[in-house]
Design a protein that fits this description.
globular, about 40% helix
């Protein structure tokens, strides 16, 4: 799965894998620039995490009394249900734009069309599900989730800023997680591992307060040999200077920063061992 700028992660992204030299050559031949995965090999790694629920899920699973209050209040004002993907194609414009703006990410028509194409393709794959939280008849938040091999994975969440006072994401997360954990064969729900670009502490705190706990993972980054002289060789200071200059305005710069920070962390971890 491409995360942008030809940064590829396997899916499910939290499952440890081993990549041989043949695997790497194949990915580079497919024009991948970066690989970000969980390694099960004895190689340098960055200490990452996945946020997971693994047991029966109900109000008692929510670790914060304030969050429990918010969820109960949200469920009085929001309805949560599984929705067809074509409803996301029709109704998600504001949700996507608002989410990008709150996160300080660049948003334009090409970004919106990229997500709409994603929804259209997801509709054709039975592993994908879309869930929405509604205030009156307005979609206030949505999840895109994938169900596979005993796990339910919340892949993305979008929400409207003007309806956040109703806590639709709280309601959406609670209802979907409870629904998934009550299905036969589902052993865990994941709210995602650490993104390569990092994750706001407030967002991590929200997920943990909803009952998800951090599971340590060994993250590893591989870089296309074409780019190594720029990010690991004598040109590295120039590349980092450019990344720092544009990281507030460009998702590409943030991806490069995330790659270099992860690479630096996995090298340092190896040296400490």
């Amino acid at each position: 799965m491409s995360r942008g700028m030809r940064l590829f992660s396997p899916w499910p992204s939290s499952r440890p894998i081993s990549l041989t030299r043949h695997n790497l050559r194949f990915m580079w031949s497919q024009k991948a620039m970066f690989l970000h995965y969980i390694s099960k090999d004895d190689k340098p790694y960055f200490q990452g995490y996945d946020l997971v629920v693994e047991k029966n899920y109900d109000f008692g699973s929510i670790t914060s009394s304030k969050r429990r209050h918010n969820v109960r209040w949200a469920l009085k004002h929001c309805s949560v249900e599984r929705v067809p993907f074509d409803s996301l194609v029709r109704e998600s414009d504001v949700l996507i734009e608002d989410t990008y703006q709150r996160q300080g990410r660049e948003f334009n028509k090409s970004v919106l069309e990229m997500w709409k194409n994603y929804f259209r393709l997801a509709e054709l794959n039975p592993l994908f599900e879309a869930w929405g939280a509604f205030v009156s008849d307005q979609m206030a938040a949505c999840h895109v989730c994938i169900i596979i091999d005993g796990g339910a994975y919340i892949e993305m969440t979008f929400s409207r800023t003007d309806l956040l006072r109703f806590h639709p994401v709280d309601a959406l997360c609670f209802v979907f997680t409870q629904n998934a954990m009550n299905r036969n064969g589902i052993t865990h729900v994941s709210y995602g591992r650490r993104p390569i670009t990092g994750e706001a502490e407030g967002l991590v705190s929200f997920k943990e307060s909803m009952g998800f706990r951090k599971i340590p993972l060994r993250e590893r980054v591989e870089i296309n040999p074409i780019l190594k002289p720029f990010l690991c060789g004598p040109l590295r200071p120039i590349a980092l200077n450019i990344v720092e200059k544009y990281s507030d305005r460009s998702m590409y710069a943030r991806i490069i920063a995330g790659v270099t920070n992860t690479l630096r962390g996995q090298i340092r971890h190896s040296q400490e061992e």
